[in-house]
Design a protein that fits this description.
174 residues, alpha/beta, five-stranded parallel beta sheet, 7 helices, 39% helix
Protein backbone atom coordinates (compact mmCIF):
# COMPACT_ATOMS: atom_id res chain seq x y z
CA UNK A 1 0.00 0.00 0.00
CA UNK A 2 2.87 2.38 0.78
CA UNK A 3 4.24 1.87 -2.73
CA UNK A 4 0.86 2.55 -4.38
CA UNK A 5 -0.47 5.45 -2.32
CA UNK A 6 2.62 7.20 -1.00
CA UNK A 7 5.52 6.43 -3.31
CA UNK A 8 3.89 5.98 -6.74
CA UNK A 9 1.94 9.26 -6.98
CA UNK A 10 5.23 11.18 -6.91
CA UNK A 11 6.87 9.00 -9.58
CA UNK A 12 6.96 9.37 -13.35
CA UNK A 13 5.03 6.69 -15.28
CA UNK A 14 8.09 4.53 -16.08
CA UNK A 15 9.23 4.69 -12.46
CA UNK A 16 5.75 3.72 -11.25
CA UNK A 17 5.63 0.68 -13.54
CA UNK A 18 9.15 -0.31 -12.42
CA UNK A 19 7.93 -0.20 -8.79
CA UNK A 20 4.89 -2.34 -9.65
CA UNK A 21 7.11 -4.78 -11.54
CA UNK A 22 9.57 -5.01 -8.63
CA UNK A 23 6.76 -5.43 -6.10
CA UNK A 24 5.21 -8.22 -8.21
CA UNK A 25 8.56 -10.00 -8.52
CA UNK A 26 9.17 -9.80 -4.77
CA UNK A 27 5.65 -11.01 -3.97
CA UNK A 28 6.02 -14.02 -6.26
CA UNK A 29 9.44 -14.82 -4.77
CA UNK A 30 7.97 -14.73 -1.24
CA UNK A 31 5.21 -17.09 -2.41
CA UNK A 32 7.78 -19.49 -3.89
CA UNK A 33 6.71 -18.90 -7.51
CA UNK A 34 9.44 -18.93 -10.17
CA UNK A 35 8.56 -17.23 -13.45
CA UNK A 36 10.13 -18.47 -16.66
CA UNK A 37 9.60 -16.75 -19.99
CA UNK A 38 10.01 -18.54 -23.30
CA UNK A 39 9.84 -15.57 -25.64
CA UNK A 40 10.79 -16.22 -29.24
CA UNK A 41 12.39 -12.80 -29.68
CA UNK A 42 14.05 -9.97 -27.77
CA UNK A 43 11.51 -9.35 -25.01
CA UNK A 44 12.88 -5.93 -24.02
CA UNK A 45 12.33 -4.56 -27.53
CA UNK A 46 8.92 -6.24 -27.78
CA UNK A 47 7.45 -4.35 -24.84
CA UNK A 48 8.68 -0.78 -25.26
CA UNK A 49 5.66 0.67 -27.07
CA UNK A 50 1.90 0.75 -26.47
CA UNK A 51 0.29 -2.55 -27.29
CA UNK A 52 -2.49 -4.89 -26.30
CA UNK A 53 -1.39 -8.08 -24.54
CA UNK A 54 -3.96 -10.86 -24.64
CA UNK A 55 -3.58 -13.86 -22.40
CA UNK A 56 -5.30 -16.94 -21.11
CA UNK A 57 -6.48 -16.66 -17.50
CA UNK A 58 -5.53 -19.56 -15.24
CA UNK A 59 -5.18 -18.25 -11.71
CA UNK A 60 -5.32 -15.28 -9.39
CA UNK A 61 -1.52 -15.32 -9.74
CA UNK A 62 -1.69 -14.37 -13.44
CA UNK A 63 -1.72 -10.62 -12.87
CA UNK A 64 1.36 -10.81 -10.63
CA UNK A 65 3.16 -13.01 -13.15
CA UNK A 66 2.41 -10.65 -16.04
CA UNK A 67 3.22 -7.54 -13.98
CA UNK A 68 6.55 -9.14 -13.02
CA UNK A 69 7.45 -9.38 -16.72
CA UNK A 70 5.51 -6.62 -18.49
CA UNK A 71 3.85 -3.98 -16.29
CA UNK A 72 0.47 -3.15 -17.78
CA UNK A 73 -2.90 -1.58 -17.27
CA UNK A 74 -5.27 -4.54 -16.86
CA UNK A 75 -8.88 -5.04 -17.86
CA UNK A 76 -10.89 -6.81 -15.13
CA UNK A 77 -14.46 -7.64 -14.28
CA UNK A 78 -16.16 -4.98 -12.18
CA UNK A 79 -16.50 -7.32 -9.19
CA UNK A 80 -12.74 -7.05 -8.59
CA UNK A 81 -13.17 -3.40 -7.55
CA UNK A 82 -15.19 -4.54 -4.48
CA UNK A 83 -12.74 -7.24 -3.33
CA UNK A 84 -11.02 -6.43 -0.03
CA UNK A 85 -7.40 -5.28 -0.50
CA UNK A 86 -7.22 -6.51 -4.11
CA UNK A 87 -9.82 -3.99 -5.27
CA UNK A 88 -7.91 -1.08 -3.75
CA UNK A 89 -4.65 -2.28 -5.30
CA UNK A 90 -6.37 -2.72 -8.68
CA UNK A 91 -7.74 0.82 -8.60
CA UNK A 92 -4.32 2.23 -7.68
CA UNK A 93 -2.82 0.32 -10.63
CA UNK A 94 -5.31 1.98 -13.02
CA UNK A 95 -7.26 -1.20 -13.84
CA UNK A 96 -10.06 -0.73 -16.39
CA UNK A 97 -13.19 -2.34 -14.96
CA UNK A 98 -16.00 -3.78 -17.08
CA UNK A 99 -19.44 -5.15 -16.29
CA UNK A 100 -19.48 -8.09 -18.67
CA UNK A 101 -23.28 -8.13 -18.77
CA UNK A 102 -23.66 -4.50 -19.79
CA UNK A 103 -23.25 -3.30 -23.40
CA UNK A 104 -22.72 0.28 -22.22
CA UNK A 105 -19.99 -0.87 -19.81
CA UNK A 106 -18.32 -2.78 -22.64
CA UNK A 107 -18.36 0.40 -24.75
CA UNK A 108 -16.86 2.36 -21.84
CA UNK A 109 -14.17 -0.33 -21.41
CA UNK A 110 -13.24 0.03 -25.10
CA UNK A 111 -13.05 3.82 -24.68
CA UNK A 112 -10.91 3.48 -21.52
CA UNK A 113 -8.53 0.99 -23.17
CA UNK A 114 -8.39 3.21 -26.24
CA UNK A 115 -7.38 6.13 -24.01
CA UNK A 116 -4.72 4.11 -22.18
CA UNK A 117 -3.19 2.96 -25.47
CA UNK A 118 -3.30 6.53 -26.82
CA UNK A 119 -1.37 7.68 -23.72
CA UNK A 120 1.32 5.07 -24.49
CA UNK A 121 0.34 2.39 -22.00
CA UNK A 122 0.54 -1.35 -22.49
CA UNK A 123 -2.86 -2.92 -21.74
CA UNK A 124 -3.41 -6.56 -20.78
CA UNK A 125 -6.70 -8.41 -20.99
CA UNK A 126 -8.08 -11.92 -20.83
CA UNK A 127 -10.32 -12.13 -23.91
CA UNK A 128 -11.76 -15.52 -22.98
CA UNK A 129 -13.58 -13.67 -20.18
CA UNK A 130 -13.02 -16.41 -17.60
CA UNK A 131 -10.33 -18.51 -16.03
CA UNK A 132 -9.61 -22.05 -17.26
CA UNK A 133 -7.10 -24.80 -16.57
CA UNK A 134 -5.05 -23.41 -19.44
CA UNK A 135 -5.10 -26.56 -21.51
CA UNK A 136 -7.22 -25.12 -24.32
CA UNK A 137 -8.16 -21.76 -25.77
CA UNK A 138 -11.82 -20.76 -25.66
CA UNK A 139 -13.70 -18.29 -27.83
CA UNK A 140 -12.53 -14.67 -27.46
CA UNK A 141 -14.79 -11.72 -26.71
CA UNK A 142 -14.01 -9.25 -29.49
CA UNK A 143 -14.60 -5.96 -27.61
CA UNK A 144 -11.10 -5.95 -26.18
CA UNK A 145 -9.59 -5.81 -29.66
CA UNK A 146 -11.53 -2.73 -30.81
CA UNK A 147 -9.18 -0.29 -29.07
CA UNK A 148 -6.09 -1.97 -30.53
CA UNK A 149 -7.60 -1.59 -33.99
CA UNK A 150 -8.55 2.04 -33.36
CA UNK A 151 -5.06 2.88 -32.09
CA UNK A 152 -3.24 0.71 -34.67
CA UNK A 153 -1.19 -1.01 -31.99
CA UNK A 154 0.25 -4.49 -32.02
CA UNK A 155 -1.61 -7.32 -30.31
CA UNK A 156 0.82 -9.57 -28.47
CA UNK A 157 -0.46 -13.00 -27.38
CA UNK A 158 0.79 -14.49 -24.13
CA UNK A 159 0.18 -18.00 -22.84
CA UNK A 160 0.41 -18.86 -19.17
CA UNK A 161 1.02 -22.34 -17.89
CA UNK A 162 1.80 -23.43 -14.35
CA UNK A 163 4.08 -26.44 -13.98
CA UNK A 164 5.59 -28.45 -11.17
CA UNK A 165 9.20 -27.27 -10.68
CA UNK A 166 10.68 -30.76 -10.39
CA UNK A 167 8.72 -32.64 -13.04
CA UNK A 168 7.54 -29.96 -15.47
CA UNK A 169 4.07 -31.52 -15.36
CA UNK A 170 0.95 -29.35 -15.57
CA UNK A 171 0.10 -28.02 -12.12
CA UNK A 172 -3.24 -26.67 -10.90
CA UNK A 173 -2.05 -25.59 -7.44
CA UNK A 174 -1.96 -21.95 -8.49
Amino acid sequence: FWILWVRCPSLQREEKWAEIQSWSQRTLRIMGVTVRSQAGQDVSAMFTKPQLLVCNHVSWLDVLVIQSLHPSVFVAKKEVRAWPVVGAIAQACEVVFVDRGSPSSARQMVADVNGALARGYRVTGFPEGTSTEGLEVRMFHANLFEAAIAQSVDVQPLALRYTHAATGAHCQVA
